[in-house]
Predict the structure.
Amino acid sequence: MEALSIQIKVNGHSHRLQTFPNRRLLDILREDLTLTGTKEGCGIGECGACTVLVDGEAVNACLILAPQVDGREILTIEGLSERGSLHPLQQAFIDHFAFQCGFCTPGMLMAAKALLDVNPSPSREEIRQGLAGVLCRCTGYIQIFEAVEDAAQALLETAVSGIEGTAGAAIAQRTEEAR
Amino acid sequence: MDSLHLPAFQYQRPGTLREALELLSISKGPAFPLAGGTDLLVQLRSRPFAPECLFVDLGNLTELRGVQLENNNLQIGALATHAQLAASPLIQAEAPLLAWACARVGTPQTRTRGTLGGNVVHASPAADTIPPLLVHEAILVICSPQAKRRSALDRFLLGPYRTTKRDDEVLVAFSLPRLTNQPPAGCYRYGYQRLIRRQAVGIARIIVAAALRLQGHTISEARLACGAVTPVACRLGGVEEWLRGKEAILPVFQEAGERASREAFARIGPRWSTPYKQPVLASLVRRALQQAGDS
């Protein structure tokens, strides 16, 4: 087996790594970059604890070989907060106590981030389906769904307050009516 | 550092299909095309692979990802992902059974990576996408270094996890003859039903895919496929024949369910689970036909 070189961008930082083809994205993140927030649960794509975003899409980091992400952009739980302040999803998970042991939480948050990126105001059912790839054995999921709903609302409000003048007010009103 | 988690293997990531085919044909050990990896990487952990095994990563062959309508055939690249197909307006319009199956297979995470070609070549008896493809009478386009061949899906599948694909071949595309909705021949309506322990992650216990062509309330053509319940997913030709010319009403669907269940279980012979599965298959067939008839 020959070593190979890959170039990846993780949480905004570029890395060139020498690695072996039988190493997974999960191994690169945890062992080479010491980004241990991404967890290994089952290792066979069933529990979702290793969920990260590759080019904005949720994937199981345990089911991708390192060379398969050559040239790609990766977002892990360590890259979710911005400028030292928690992402609204992280804050909502804390507010709702949406975890006990916390092992699934990084995967839950990344799956939720992928969902909200494409669907900013998902229904409860859409949240259930969006998070169906991550197992939580502690919470019973309800607090997690509520947290994602709250975070979606917070993100929409942030987006609206970023729009100046009447357009923003109109969107705010429509959001209020939709509620 | 070498991996602690996966065995050693040889790996190549060719830039063209021709290169990929050459690599597969000159490999000294067993060679496997690698698409999304959602099945292959699981197998890597559970069964022995010799270090000379070669994985030929098809990830750079972006030309095998397209979906288009061409001369009344729906052409689907073998590397199109489940997520891509589930979201494709063309697939939703032309092959809703396939769109539904792709939206349900695995989890959001595996649908991002998993490909239609991979699902079919893996040839699990419970593959979610195979019954819809059987209903559409999909033709597979398979390339080797020497030739390109076409094969009907039902002939391609030999048994559980066994197909006619050789080690030096790559499945490159699916061609689905378009089911046209033209009066007076009638319009196609679809139904898809699945029995599974849990909607995500799980492995289907029974899958039913149905298409009915309706002229008014009369069934002018029926296509019915079941998966997971037989060793190889298959069409149920006897029931399809029986349905032709019948009215699209509940008592007909009920009897079709009974007949479909008898037909499927006659093929595989009695098993310990037959008394449990037989009435369930009948119900799922009835529901799939109702779903098609009501849509």
